[in-house]
Amino acid sequence: MNAETRLGFFAGLGAYFIWGSLPLYIRLMDHISATELLAQRIVWSVPTALILIAVAAKWRDVRVAFQWQNVRWLAISGLLIGANWACYIWAVHVNRTVEASLGYYINPLVNVLFGMFIFSERLRKAQWVAVVLATIGVGIMTMAYGHVPWVALFLCVTFAIYSLIRKQVAVDSRAGFLVEIALLAPLALTWLGWFSSQPGNTLMGDGGWDVVLLMAAGPITSVPLILFALSARRLKLSTLGMMQYIGPTLQFLIATLVFREAFSWTHGVAFGFIWLALIIFTSDSVMGEAKARRLARAARIA
């Protein structure tokens, strides 16, 4: 493993570890409403993003990101990621972290379906098998909850559409993130102003450590995105594909072992189908990438 690959590997681990540990931070702040925590997360992400862009000297990319043809799409992606954050924070607050982790497990399979319906991509047999198994898992989870697991579906669909838009907008990841949160910040500040004007409400929690922890929401949001961008440029897609399950696995373990959320045998069967689908899907992706490399190598030799 050379130095660049090693940097990418540890950057990826850092990103997924932070994302996977996020429920611990949200639960630590559960005395603050989900809406205020969301607004604070948006507001404190702005100075964090500005600092990261200044360090990387990416101001030219910021100007490109603020061009109208990019802003109009980044406004949509910003609303999507804001809605995703809101749903996730609320889910952890109301003890539905297991269901939230399910959403990020099935997200890669939703991406495959988007590729089929939007870009007319043809699914391989193994991918069809994975999608069917995941669908069965979601159906069993519906029986376990007594209702459709809408939190999981909302999280995976909003993030899949967000990823789709960001893939199509050719801007630096840091600059694009700055535009998204800069567009969301006025909404967040307006809400915080209204909230603080209501009798009995105070901003920044109980003061003291609450102030520090709320300010930390900016780095907690921005840093893993930057680490992910570093890893994506240095690692193979197959490696990233396998690493992406670190986040939801940590969330799942925290939900069941730390938060002690309900997890019956029915949940176990549902997750079993989904994990089997992911094993098949990931194995097929790894073999597909290996085959593509062999064909490319053979073409160069020829």
UniProtKB/TrEMBL annotation:
<feature type="transmembrane region" description="Helical">
    <location>
        <begin position="103"/>
        <end position="119"/>
    </location>
</feature>
<feature type="transmembrane region" description="Helical">
    <location>
        <begin position="148"/>
        <end position="165"/>
    </location>
</feature>
<keyword id="KW-0812">Transmembrane</keyword>
<dbReference type="InterPro" id="IPR037185">
    <property type="entry name" value="EmrE-like"/>
</dbReference>
<feature type="transmembrane region" description="Helical">
    <location>
        <begin position="208"/>
        <end position="230"/>
    </location>
</feature>
<feature type="domain" description="EamA">
    <location>
        <begin position="7"/>
        <end position="142"/>
    </location>
</feature>
<keyword id="KW-0472">Membrane</keyword>
<keyword id="KW-1003">Cell membrane</keyword>
<feature type="transmembrane region" description="Helical">
    <location>
        <begin position="71"/>
        <end position="91"/>
    </location>
</feature>
<dbReference type="GO" id="GO:0005886">
    <property type="term" value="C:plasma membrane"/>
</dbReference>
<protein>
    <recommendedName>
        <fullName>EamA domain-containing protein</fullName>
    </recommendedName>
</protein>
<feature type="transmembrane region" description="Helical">
    <location>
        <begin position="7"/>
        <end position="26"/>
    </location>
</feature>
<dbReference type="InterPro" id="IPR004626">
    <property type="entry name" value="RarD"/>
</dbReference>
<dbReference type="Pfam" id="PF00892">
    <property type="entry name" value="EamA"/>
</dbReference>
<feature type="transmembrane region" description="Helical">
    <location>
        <begin position="242"/>
        <end position="259"/>
    </location>
</feature>
<feature type="transmembrane region" description="Helical">
    <location>
        <begin position="177"/>
        <end position="196"/>
    </location>
</feature>
<feature type="transmembrane region" description="Helical">
    <location>
        <begin position="38"/>
        <end position="59"/>
    </location>
</feature>
<feature type="transmembrane region" description="Helical">
    <location>
        <begin position="126"/>
        <end position="142"/>
    </location>
</feature>
<keyword id="KW-0813">Transport</keyword>
<dbReference type="InterPro" id="IPR000620">
    <property type="entry name" value="EamA_dom"/>
</dbReference>
<comment type="similarity">
    <text>Belongs to the EamA transporter family.</text>
</comment>
<feature type="transmembrane region" description="Helical">
    <location>
        <begin position="265"/>
        <end position="287"/>
    </location>
</feature>
<keyword id="KW-1133">Transmembrane helix</keyword>
